[in-house]
């Protein structure tokens, strides 16, 4: 079972790289680019929207949201674009996963705003 999970995770990582190259292709429709950019940025972000230390919900985005987003984004892409992107993804996977610190910083700002909002609500009571 562990081997199957590792294989699944590797395939998911490859599909994210496919999306990364597919959204850069000029043949990709704008709506597919926009959705793919969001999925790729979140997948490459070093910080999760829901931190992993939160029981059950922490892994929800990694196990359900990212794979569903990848699946939908791949369905939006033209077949010719996907074929080219798969070849590029094979090469890129040899170099490891890039980090998207911009999205990571945005997620940190969302958490700071949420905590600040909660503190303001409870302090003003």
TrEMBL record:
Domain DUF1232 intervals: 32-68
A GO CC term attached to the entry: endomembrane system
Residue ranges crossing the lipid bilayer per the database entry: 30-47, 101-123
Protein name listed in UniProt: Uncharacterized protein DUF1232
Main subcellular location: membrane
Pfam families found in the cross-reference section: DUF1232
Keyword annotations: Membrane, Transmembrane, Transmembrane helix
Membrane topology: Multi-pass membrane protein
Localisation per UniProt entry: Endomembrane system
């Amino acid at each position: 079972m562990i081997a199957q999970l590792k294989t699944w995770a590797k395939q998911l990582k490859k599909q994210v790289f496919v999306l990364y190259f597919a959204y850069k292709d000029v043949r990709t429709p704008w709506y597919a680019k926009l959705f793919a950019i969001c999925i790729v940025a979140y997948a490459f972000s070093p910080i999760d929207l829901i931190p992993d230390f939160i029981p059950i919900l922490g892994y929800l985005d990694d196990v359900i949201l990212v794979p569903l987003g990848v699946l939908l984004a791949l369905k939006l892409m033209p077949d010719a674009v996907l074929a080219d992107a798969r070849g590029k993804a094979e090469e890129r996977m040899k170099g490891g996963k890039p980090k998207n610190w911009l999205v990571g910083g945005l997620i940190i700002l969302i958490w700071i705003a949420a905590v600040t909002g909660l503190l303001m609500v409870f302090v003003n009571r």
